[in-house]
Give the backbone structure.
Amino acid sequence: MILINCPYCGEREQSEFTNGGEAHVIRPKDPDTLNDKDWGQYVFYRSNPKGIFYERWVHSHGCRKWFNAVRDTSTDTILKIYKLTDNKPDISEFQSSLKSPSGEPAVGSGNFAVKK
Amino acid sequence: MKKKYSILSLIKNAFSNNENWEKMWESPEPKKGYDVIIVGGGGHGLGTAYYLAKEHGIKNIAVIEKGWLGGGNTGRNTTIIRSNYLWNESANLYDHSVKLWENLSEELNFNMMFSQRGVMNLAHNEHDIKEMKRRISANRLNGLDTQWVDTKQIKELVPIMNTENLRYPVLGAAFQPRGGVARHDAVAWGYALRSNEMGVDIIQNCEVKDIKTDNHKVEGVNTSKGFIRANKVAVVASGHTSVLAQTAGVRLPLQSRPLQALVSEPIKPVINTVVMSNAVHAYVSQSDKGELVIGAGTDGYNSFTQRGGYDVIEETVRAIVELYPIFGKMKMLRQWGGIVDICPDASPIISKCEVKGLYFNCGWGTGGFKATPGSANVFAHTVAKDEPHKINEAFNLERFSNGRLIDEHGAAAVAH
């Protein structure tokens, strides 16, 4: 279980929150002019990085407010929490803990963050 | 040389304390190039190599695995096999698999411990009953053996179940007698053994770092053991598929999440079928060793940590204890997580893509184990012929732009 620092209520257990998927996905301005492929990209395709991920959360069992977070999906470390009105933090602010695309140790499978 | 396992070889090796068994497959250094490279040495990947060699005459194949064979989701699932899916496309695909499972031990001369003990999906409310009866009718039209069982019949099949004194009473169930469980390691090892005999190179502890393409054509893979050229690259990397796809410039509609399972201490046989309940988030079966094998749900957020949150386990165990009060005092031995890749429609992608020579078999989400032989079989066809098999035609990538989704969330809710 991870702890999430709600910008309005403070640190609470993750089970109080609901994840809202990738953040900063912009609805196309003029959907009528899009072809099926591009519309499909907007509806069904989301980033799924191992490493730094921008995502939305809502404090469903608390203040019920939405906010954004930057999390390292390979370790579940939350790197930054910011309000919806704040600008998207630049990726160069964060250091990726990944040593290879899969982020695995040279030998063996599993989570290196746990193994170390 | 074909290795044969029989009662005689068992007796012979018992005399030497089981220390002189021959190695099942070789571990060669990678060659400079291959006709086909399969990324991912789980059941699906090794099976693909087997069917490519056996049915399509392609022998110059390498299976590249970053860890050990079957150490990913093949070794982490709850080994449930069934085919009671709603839509025709899924029923055909999953039943193709069940039919292959039925003969797999014989075909590979390796004991899959496939036990068709039946799979039961419980109904807890009016909506469940209606939805399940609809699914049973759809299954029967597709020639599947699903049937409705009432509470009295459930009690006969699973006497230890509490059907009445609980918040969500058990009102009936959909039962597929041909469903069951199999041994997860055996399917990976069996395919590895037989494909290695046909000349497939199995390369473990070698991580594919990226897929090299040139002008929308695949050239090979960069690995921790250097660059390996390939005419075709088939990616079967479950949770990490989208990470690899990205290195080839391909975007897939997948989200990776941890899925957890746990086993209890071993006890005498108490439950001889697989019981699943989508509504209360619990499913359980008993392994041949006597452990209860319990599947939990996925976490509500993307992660690659192979752990999962404790609240997910708590929810499942709560439901298990209410359904089976006699498990209340049991100790759990182990808990683990695997990273599953989930598609928006809870159906897999077995398809080629815009890069020539690059193929994906992914998106199995929370339920790929049951499909191992069937998926490998049709994927091998797709890779060899550069066009889909009749069975996996609908499981293409185009469905996310033309809208022909195969929505199996109903069949998938907890235990896909």
Summary: Chain A is about 10% helix and 30% strand.
